[in-house]
């Protein structure tokens, strides 16, 4: 069925992957990551352009365009602008931020479109949006777990080396430099995924029409979790904090994340998982 959302879901996932590469290039200049991000974003633009061209061909009058199609046009323009900036000016953070708005606008357009049919027959259309929200959140949480494990290894190695106690366990672990690097890479993956998760949550709340959910403790605490990991990156990139302090902060951020995930079942008005 033409109006089914599996194709739109694929576009959103490709869009999200593109943003991960752009964020990675912003954190640490990486030509391969930038090329991958630009290539995926260009693919999204091509799909959007084809869809937009089809709609303009179908509608004989621009006044016939719905608010949803107008949102799609806004999203297309944001992607177009970011591709132009990416081509002529190296401002990866600008491209990333602009496309977060483009991602949200595209999701709002897709899931507010009348007559959209979810991929699974027993789902509501908002369930489709919720599924993408949950999968991105799960991927982000998994990245934070990986990062916390490497930070734990880093602190273990740091303590043993400081005490000058060499063990066989230490021989089987990566170096201090590697554990620090791997922890950072996992945060670079998890932080933008969490941002996109929150973005889709905002879109879902907007479609539900219950603005009180914006002030739900789970939503507010998710912003604190994101800020904690952003501060981790700020310490690493601009404050040049030592590896052991970064590892300690990373574990503290993960503790906040874990409590936010587990306790959500008791203090939130939605997000219950049992």
How would you concisely characterize the structure shown here?
The protein is mainly α.
Query: Gap between N and C termini, in Å?
Result: 34 Å
How many helix segments?
Answer: 9
* CATH class (first level) name of the largest domain: Mainly Alpha
How many domains comprise the coordinates? 2
- Percentage of residues in strands: under 5%
Tell how many strands the DSSP assignment holds.
0
Looking at the overall shape, the CATH architecture of the largest domain is Up-down Bundle
Helix content: over 70%
Shape verdict: globular
CATH-assigned fold name of the largest domain: Four Helix Bundle (Hemerythrin (Met), subunit A)
- CA gyration radius, whole angstroms: 21 Å
Largest sheet: none
Give the class from helix and strand content and strand pairing.
mainly alpha
User: What is the string of helix and strand elements?
Assistant: HHHHHHHHH
Report what the structure shows.
The longest helix is centred in the middle third of the chain and has 38 residues, at 125-162. This protein has nine helices and no strands. It is mainly α and 274 residues long.
């Amino acid at each position: 069925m033409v109006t089914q959302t599996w194709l739109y879901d694929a576009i959103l996932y490709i869009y999200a992957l593109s943003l991960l590469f752009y964020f990675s290039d912003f954190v640490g200049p990486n030509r391969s990551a930038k090329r991958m991000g630009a290539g995926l974003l260009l693919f999204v633009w091509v799909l959007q352009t084809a869809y937009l061209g089809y709609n303009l061909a179908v509608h004989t009058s621009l006044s016939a365009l719905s608010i949803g199609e107008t949102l799609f046009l806004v999203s297309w323009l944001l992607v177009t602008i970011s591709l132009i900036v990416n081509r002529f000016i190296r401002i990866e953070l600008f491209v990333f931020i602009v496309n977060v708005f483009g991602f949200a606008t595209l999701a709002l357009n897709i899931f507010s479109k009348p007559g959209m049919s979810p991929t699974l027959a027993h789902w509501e259309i908002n369930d489709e949006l919720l599924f993408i929200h949950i999968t991105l959140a799960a991927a982000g949480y998994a990245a934070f777990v990986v990062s916390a494990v490497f930070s734990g290894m880093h602190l273990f190695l740091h303590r043993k080396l400081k005490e000058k106690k060499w063990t066989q366990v230490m021989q089987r672990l990566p170096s201090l430099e590697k554990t620090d690097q791997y922890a950072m890479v996992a945060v670079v993956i998890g932080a933008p995924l969490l941002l996109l998760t929150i973005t889709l949550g905002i879109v879902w709340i907007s479609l539900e029409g219950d603005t009180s959910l914006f002030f739900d403790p789970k939503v507010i605490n998710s912003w604190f979790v994101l800020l904690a990991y952003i501060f981790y990156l700020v310490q690493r990139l601009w404050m040049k904090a030592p590896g052991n302090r970064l590892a300690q902060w990373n574990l503290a951020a993960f503790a906040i994340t874990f409590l936010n995930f587990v306790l959500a079942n008791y203090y939130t008005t939605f997000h219950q998982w049992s």
